[in-house]
Design a protein that fits this description.
There is one protein chain. It is built from 18 helices and 14 strands. By secondary structure, the chain is α/β, with parallel strands linked by helices. The protein has 2 domains: about 200 residues, NAD(P)-binding Rossmann-like Domain (Rossmann fold, 3-Layer(aba) Sandwich); about 220 residues, NAD(P)-binding Rossmann-like Domain (Rossmann fold). It has a 6-stranded parallel β-sheet, sandwiched between helices. The chain has a 6-stranded parallel β-sheet with strand order 11-10-9-12-13-14. Helix 1 crosses helix 3. It starts with a strand and ends with a strand. The relative contact order is 0.09. The protein binds uridine-5'-diphosphate-xylopyranose (UDX).
Length: about 425
């Protein structure tokens, strides 16, 4: 009999994991404590914008392999393998991660676990969490040591969540026993030939923190080079291109611009530093403080550059902001560099109109004080300066003449180094970009 799976927590990660595991042929029961979210998922509606996920969800609701519940009792009775996919947000006013949702899942599930099963954590956690939760599970579950824990971090990118789940580049298994390894190898067998790294709990937890720290560092590295380019009239885009041909460096995550945001990278590097501090290894990660600082300085530089272009003050100026999501192909505005810049310019007296292809509703909710347009052209109408802050393809495809016909002055700052400078300058635009002359 194939294993029956549950997915506890149906946010970004959980909704994707549940739908994709059903797609692989498993019977899956998704659980969330949010009744409204479960109702929406049952009717095939996603709480997030994620290309391709809606189709996978609907198909597996229709074939009956995927169901949703709010009952831990039902989940415990159903599942042989329970995937825990709840969030670990940054604590208010602190760098550390808030792992209370994980504890809540274990405390709610464990009392109903009366038979052998495997609980698998997928959330990003401070190293040491898995061992603590494993002990707690055994203590609280009626089945005691028949309930085992494994740690299996998730590396999916928003916008590519389905692809990354069904075609991962690696699988990391932090296990406490060979039996747990055997079960997880069977569960992931339908994915085909994927490299699997089998290790202990702490290493598996650290892999995720290290991966995100590396990615953030790479982005901040090129953005630090952008600062030096700005000081020396050099061109960071050409610098990045030249670096990319060195295979040891590689061109991915080397795009200079407004820097990283989102629900993962910023909070994960902060949580990583906080945990290292607790472990007495804070010196090892002090460089991440600089990575964070470089990243935040890009936002300030963007505001300064825009202010410079409108003559030194935003008072009485209309500013068009293209992009609200933290990156293209997503409606996620968590720690969005674009919205941060828009809000700061608003605070400094600018009249800001924001447009984004899918993140407008989320942006409106978070920043009701800003004005929103229903298209790029509408947002740009009468603007003294246009800021491209999220590199959606529809912005890259904008016609400089058409946009030029609606603005007050043809001035644009390319916050993502996504536009062709020559094309825009040929249409009489004053084109500026971060890190370029
Ligand atoms: C990230 C990790 O990539 C993923 O493996 C992990 O599981 C969760 O965090 P995600 O947050 O979806 O995924 O976004 P990602 O595509 O990594 O981009 C992060 C941020 O970096 C975005 O704001 C993006 O605009 C920015 N970025 C990315 C750059 O500024 N320059 C680059 O070269 C690449």
């Amino acid at each position: 009999m194939p294993y029956r799976l549950t997915v506890l927590g149906t946010g970004y990660l959980g909704a994707t994991h549940a739908a994709c595991m059903a797609e692989l042929g498993f019977e899956v029961l998704g659980l969330d404590v949010d009744e409204a979210k479960i109702e929406r998922l049952r009717s095939g509606e996603l709480p997030i914008h994620e290309p391709g996920l809606r189709e996978v969800l609907q198909r597996n609701l229709d074939n009956g392999r995927l169901r949703f519940t709010t009952s831990y009792e039902e989940a415990a009775a159903f599942g042989d393998v329970h995937f825990v996919c709840v969030g670990t947000p940054q604590k208010k006013g602190e760098n550390a991660a808030d792992v209370s949702y994980l504890d809540a899942v274990v405390e709610s599930l464990a009392p109903h676990l009366t038979r052998e099963c495997l609980v698998v954590g997928k959330s990003t956690v401070p190293v040491g969490t898995a061992q603590r939760l494993a002990d707690k599970l055994v203590r609280l579950a009626p089945a005691g040591p028949q309930v085992e824990l494994a740690w299996n971090p998730e590396f999916l990118r928003e916008g590519f969540a389905v692809q990354d789940t069904l075609h991962p580049n690696r699988i990391v298994l932090g296990i406490g026993s060979e039996k747990a390894e055997k079960i997880l190898r069977e569960v992931y067998a339908p994915l085909g030939d994927v490299p699997i790294v089998v290790t202990d709990y702490p290493t598996s937890e650290l892999v995720k923190s290290a991966a995100n720290a590396f990615l953030a560092t790479k982005i901040s590295f090129i953005n630090a080079m952008a600062e030096v380019c700005e000081a020396s009239h050099a061109d960071v885009k050409q610098l990045s291109l030249a670096l990319s041909f060195d295979e040891r460096i590689g061109g991915k995550f080397l795009n200079p611009g407004l820097g990283f945001g989102g629900g993962c990278l910023p909070k994960d590097i902060r949580a990583f530093m906080a945990r290292a501090g607790e472990l007495g290894a804070d010196q090892a990660l002090t460089f991440l403080r600089e990575v964070d600082a470089i990243n935040m300085r890009r936002r300030a530089r963007m505001v300064d550059l825009a202010r410079e272009l409108v003559g030194g003050s935003f008072q009485g100026c209309t500013v068009a902001v293209l992009g609200a999501a933290f990156k293209p192909n997503s409606d996620d505005i968590r720690d969005s560099p674009a919205l941060d810049v828009a809000a700061t310019i608003g605070d400094q007296g600018g009249r800001v109109t924001v447009y984004d292809p899918v993140a407008l509703d989320n942006a409106r909710r978070a920043h009701p004080e800003l004005t929103y347009g229903s298209s790029a052209l509408e947002a740009a109408r009468g603007a003294h300066v246009v800021l491209l802050l999220t590199e959606w393809q529809e912005f890259i495809d904008l016609d400089p003449e058409e946009l030029g016909s609606v603005v007050a002055t043809r001035k644009i700052v390319d916050g993502r180094n996504a536009l062709d400078a020559e094309t825009w300058r040929a249409s009489s635009w004053h084109y500026r970009a971060l890190g370029r002359p």
